[in-house]
Design brief:
The chain is built from ten helices and 14 strands. The protein is α+β, with helices and mostly antiparallel strands. The protein has three domains: 3-49; 57-69 and 329-417, Elongation Factor Tu (Ef-tu), domain 3; 101-295. The strands form three sheets. It has a six-stranded antiparallel beta barrel with strand order 1-10-13-12-11-14. A four-stranded antiparallel β-sheet has the order 2-9-7-4, with no helix packed on it. It has a four-stranded antiparallel β-sheet with strand order 6-5-3-8. The longest helix has 71 residues, at 223-293.
């Protein structure tokens, strides 16, 4: 109690009432007495927290997930019943593996056997020539549907081509023509020998005529007798000319036979080429049929059913049936940021991506880093930003996000992760400078 009040109380006790005395003697609670200190301490504590608490600057943008080597869709190309399923959901498949087939007028298994037979025959023709069709031939089928007519045409071409091979009509005819050429060559040799003999005989006749001509000049023999020798000389010359004509006729016959062989060889070659073209056409039609009615895996990976599929189910044309998920898939995000705050975005900045189809409170968010910023805006005056996802589609909660095409998201680009103290002082500085 103050000394002046105590002195006043001692000197004039009647001047202080009981109420005043109660107020004067009341001792306040400690929190009131120490309130200023506590308030100051709290303020200092809160101010010190601003040195540790960070409050980032954020630029919002729309986003979508993009996959590098994404799952491939397998859809039906025709309408019909799903006759057979060869795989199960989540099964590993290889590229080109049949997944099932859709109803058609052809027997699927006959078409598969035909395809295998065609491939084997083409391979053997490339390896050992058309003679291989005597070893490998197409099986007989009767349930090929739309392929039956072209299959029959190819079979007919094969029969015609077999006639061009050893033991066939064309080869037998060619052998006969080659035999004729041998006989013609022998006749030519005989005619050549005969011509040489006639040539020698003519030379002897010429010598004899010259001798008689000399005797005729000396009047030893009569001119009439010389004419007889002249006639013999002319006869020898005619015989020599006949031998030349015979050789020439033999050469003409030989050339005609060779022409027949060339024409025959052209027929053989044309028929073999015609058969091979027919075989390739049949292969093309079979592959076209399989592309329409057979469902195949486009690459190695895990097969995912789009919906619950069962055999004999009616399938619409173009209906999505499966996804083939490759073994290794990488992902990134494409962001479209508006003009607001785009100048603060830089490569390497952290990005938080919240998938619309996976609630953030339950699944968490994806983390990424800015990898690329376009320098030119698009038609909507937005900038394209590419964001790498180092953790893939695994969220901060440790939950995986199942990728689906056209997944949309909202992105937050952290442009400056400043401390709260610096933000407050920055605001105060702006206010002070105004």
């Amino acid at each position: 109690m103050p000394a002046d009040i105590i002195q006043l109380k001692q000197n004039s006790p009647e001047l202080i009432s009981d109420d005043v005395r109660e107020i004067i003697t009341y001792r306040p609670h400690w929190i009131i007495r120490q309130g200023n200190v506590i308030f100051l301490s709290v303020m200092v504590f809160l101010l010190s927290l601003t040195l540790f608490v960070k409050y980032p600057d954020i630029v919002n943008a729309s986003a979508k997930l993009v996959a590098v080597n994404p799952p491939k869709l397998v859809a039906s190309r025709v309408e019909g019943k799903l006759m057979k399923l060869f795989v199960l959901n989540n099964q590993q498949v290889n590229q080109g593996q049949p997944l099932g087939y859709i109803e058609s007028t052809a027997d699927y298994f006959e078409v598969i056997k035909l395809r295998n037979g065609i491939n084997e025959l083409i391979k053997s023709v490339h390896a050992i020539g058309h003679e291989s069709i005597n070893i490998y031939s197409l099986p007989q089928f009767g349930s090929l549907g739309d392929l039956q007519s072209i299959y029959e045409e190819t079979q007919n071409e094969m029969i015609q081509t077999k006639q061009t091979l050893a033991g066939g009509y064309y080869q037998a005819k060619k052998a006969a023509l080659e035999k004729d050429l041998q006989y013609i060559a022998e006749l030519k040799n005989f005619s050549s020998r005969q011509k040489r003999l006639l040539q020698q005989d003519k030379e002897l006749q010429n010598k004899e005529y010259k001798a008689y001509e000399s005797l005729a000049k000396d009047k030893v023999i009569a001119p009439l007798e010389l004419n007889q020798y002249k006639s013999k000389q002319i006869a020898k010359e005619q015989g020599l000319q006949q031998a030349d004509a015979q050789i020439t006729n033999g050469e003409i016959t030989r050339l005609n036979k060779q022409k027949e062989i060339l024409d025959l060889q052209k027929v053989i070659t044309d028929q073999q080429q015609k058969f091979f073209a027919s075989l390739l056409n049949l292969k093309s039609q079979v592959e076209k049929w399989l592309r329409q009615y057979e469902l195949t895996a486009s690459e190695d990976g895990k097969i995912l059913f789009v919906s619950s599929l069962k055999e004999n189910e009616l399938i619409a044309g173009g209906q999505p049936l499966f996804y083939i998920e490759p073994g290794q898939v990488s992902f990134y995000a494409e962001l479209m940021a508006g003009q607001r705050g785009v100048g603060k975005i830089k490569e390497g900045q952290q990005v938080l991506i919240k998938i619309d189809g996976f609630p953030n409170a339950e699944f968490g968010h994806l983390s990424g880093n800015v990898a690329y910023i376009s320098a030119i805006p698009n038609s909507r005056d937005s900038f394209l930003i590419k964001v790498n996802l180092p953790h893939g589609l695994k969220t901060n909660y440790g939950k995986p996000i199942l990728f689906r095409n056209n997944l949309t998201a909202q992105a937050e680009i952290i442009t400056d992760n400043r401390k709260l103290f610096h933000r407050l002082t920055g605001q105060l500085k702006q206010i002070w400078e105004r």
